[in-house]
Design a protein that fits this description.
alpha+beta, 3-stranded mixed β-sheet, elongated, binds dinuclear copper ion
């Protein structure tokens, strides 16, 4: 009994303290509904648990006073019928009705001013396209606040599941079909998410960030992302661009404004503006970038990028160039 209570308390505290990835800290109407239903179920569970434990103690206590007389009679059969049939039926019916009401909200189609974003799952990263804005990015999804967002979810390879707990529930990304997920972020902030369907050995490192900003900041971001890569101006960055264009990078990666147009890996036009590398595996800084370029398998084993063989000066020039891709 104490152990199960302890587990419940630990579970609630754990979920509540997970901060920017907590189901219990909703920032949209959709996740608010899910959290509310969760709390109703939680407190009903607590009430049922306490009642059952109370009855158990009562039974133990009463037995001791008995003079060998068996239980039975009207009170006991009333308890069985009421507590064993009527009460569970009422509890389940209430939960069912609440669930139906929440499902009708979660299943509502988006209004016409909604922002459409196409999210494609890959082993092991997220491709993000804004068809109406001409923006392509990866692993970080920028959205405006107070405006509905429609994510159109599909997958290139295996089944993934999109889950940003503070914004909505889980929705699968299946190869060959498209699922929709609609939410409106109520507050600006950065909300963490995680692939929620086992998709291979780097499933746990398939994270995503949703960055919600007010409409003006979002439009500014979109304008910057739409720009092609700046032309390299210094001797070092010109050399870096040549290293990039002359290596195997271009078969998988695109940099708008150059001849590189691969679509197997993330679009790198604005990679320097992203916070992480490898879908949330490591922070995006010069050291991690160098390690990733030379041997991505040492950072995220199992991902699809092969090692690149470069001399020291070539690597430094390439890093200088990539740092201009803001
Ligand atoms: Cu993608 Cu798990």
């Amino acid at each position: 009994m104490y152990l199960s209570l302890l587990l419940i308390v630990a579970g609630v505290l754990g979920a509540a303290c997970a901060g920017d990835q907590s189901v219990l800290a909703p920032v949209s109407e959709q996740s608010g509904r899910i959290a509310r239903l969760w709390w109703v179920m939680f407190w009903l569970g607590v009430a049922v648990y306490l009642v059952v434990m109370g009855l158990l103690l009562f039974a133990l206590f009463r037995r001791r006073g008995d003079d060998g007389e068996r239980g039975g009679g009207r009170w006991d059969s009333g308890l069985v019928l009421g507590g064993g049939i009527a009460l569970p039926a009422v509890v389940i019916a209430v939960l069912f009705l609440l669930t139906l009401s929440d499902m009708s909200v979660l299943g509502r189609s988006a209004s016409s001013d909604a922002l459409r974003i196409e999210v494609t799952g890959h082993q092991f990263w997220w491709e993000v396209r804004y068809p109406d804005l001409g923006v392509v990015t990866a692993n970080e999804i920028y959205v405006p606040t107070d405006r509905p967002v429609v994510l159109r979810l599909t997958s290139k390879d295996v089944i993934h599941s999109f889950w940003v707990p503070r914004l909505h529930g889980k929705v699968d990304l299946n190869p060959g079909s498209t699922n929709e997920l609609i939410f409106t972020a109520d507050a600006p902030g950065t909300y963490r998410g995680q692939c929620a369907e086992f998709c291979g050995i780097q499933h746990a490192f398939m994270r995503m960030l949703v960055v919600a900003q007010d409409e003006a900041a979002f439009q500014l971001w979109a304008r910057e992302q739409r720009e092609p890569a700046p032309r390299p101006l210094t001797e070092q960055t010109i050399k870096g661009e040549q290293v990039f264009l002359g290596s195997a990078c271009v078969y998988c990666h695109a940099v708008q404004g150059t001849a590189a147009s691969g679509r197997i890996g993330p679009d790198l036009t604005h990679i320097a503006s992203r916070r992480t590398l490898g879908a949330g595996t490591v922070t995006n800084n010069r050291g991690n970038l160098a390690g990733w370029i030379l041997n991505p398998q040492s950072i995220k084993p199992g991902n699809k990028m092969p090692p690149t063989s470069l001399s020291g000066p070539e690597l430094q020039a390439l890093l200088d160039y990539v740092e201009t891709l803001e």
